[in-house]
Amino acid sequence: MSATNEASSPPPAKRRWPWIVLILVILALALALYFRLKDRAQPVAPAQTERMLELNKVEITTLVPQLLEQTVKVTGTLAPERRADITPQVSGKLQTVNVRTGDAVLAGQVIAQIDIRDLRLTLNQQVANSEATKAQLSLARSQLENTQALFERGTASKASLDSAQANVDALSAQVDALQAQVDTAQRAIQNASITAPFAGVIASRSAEPGQSVTPGSPLVTLVDLSVMEVQATAPLSDSASLKEGQRATLTVEGIADKSFSASVDRISPVAIENTRSIPVFLTLENPDGIFRGGMFTTGSVVVDEAQDALAVPSSALREDKQGEYVLTVVDAKLVRQPIEKGRQWSTGNLVQILTGLNPGDVVVTGRLPELEPGTAVTIVGN
């Protein structure tokens, strides 16, 4: 009986294995579905784009030919180029003084008048003396002629003839001397009218009517403002480059937003004692009369120049193992451009470029050491 029951029951292992296979298949399908849905849900990464660097317009320069100048700085003050301290040439009492400080006068205009009454008395006396001596000379000449006639007839001695001739000679010399005194007295009257030697402006007045004056006494100071002299100084180290005739550009204290052209007139051969400066004198035209003596001025003298030159700021220059170069913008990319540089000029502290660049090239001039050739750039800003 027991043997029959054992034979009729199926083995347990044969009943479970289909379920195990089914579960494994379901798990595999679930995992496959999960990863497929995950791949669909994950966004696709965009393609890598090239990095674009922005450059401001103040960081680039478009090259154009320009005038480069090397200059020497000068500072100084203005003074009238022509100045005269007018003094009398004769002694006397001032009758009138016709000008005041600031008055404009013409050449030959009477500035002051000295009383001529005493001078005229002197002249009259000299004229009288001269006329009297001329009369004596006329009589002496007549006597000489008579003595000469008597000597020729043998009735007068040689001594008498010589004496008559000596008398004529002495009186002739006396007449000449007295005539010179007359001329001097006439000039004294003329010089009593004190006139302006040139057109200008009265800078000062030192005398008043009624004052007694002598030759050399100061009356007025006259200046000509049409041309000014700039009494300036320059660094002694730059003196070798300064030459007469070089042009200069000046600004004058009190006259804003304007510059003026001047020229070097002369240069002192020695420096100012205990300084490293040398005096330089420039000529400055003043046709409008806007300059005054004593005005302070600064400026620069052009000692060298280069026409139609290409130049960049020193900040644009770069250097690597291959040599010096600049970065130019070509087709929105930075390009390494080898260059040969020249000297540095005073004009904007620019460095002249001898070879490697052309007019119209766009050069990076900003201090941007991180820039590299090949970088894509775009220009922004006004």
UniProtKB/TrEMBL annotation:
InterPro entries: Beta-barrel_RND_2, MdtA-like_BSH, MdtA-like_C, RND_pump_MFP. The keyword Transport applies. Residues 230-300 form the CusB-like beta-barrel domain. Residues 82-223 form the Multidrug resistance protein MdtA-like barrel-sandwich hybrid domain. This is Efflux RND transporter periplasmic adaptor subunit. NCBIfam families: RND_mfp. Gene3D superfamilies: 2.40.30.170, 2.40.420.20, 2.40.50.100, Helix hairpin bin. Belongs to the membrane fusion protein (MFP) (TC 8.A.1) family. The keyword Protein transport does not apply. It is found in: Cell envelope. Its main location: other. Pfam families: Beta-barrel_RND_2, BSH_RND, RND-MFP_C. GO terms for cellular component: efflux pump complex. GO terms for molecular function: efflux transmembrane transporter activity. Residues 308-368 form the Multidrug resistance protein MdtA-like C-terminal permuted SH3 domain. Keywords: Transport.
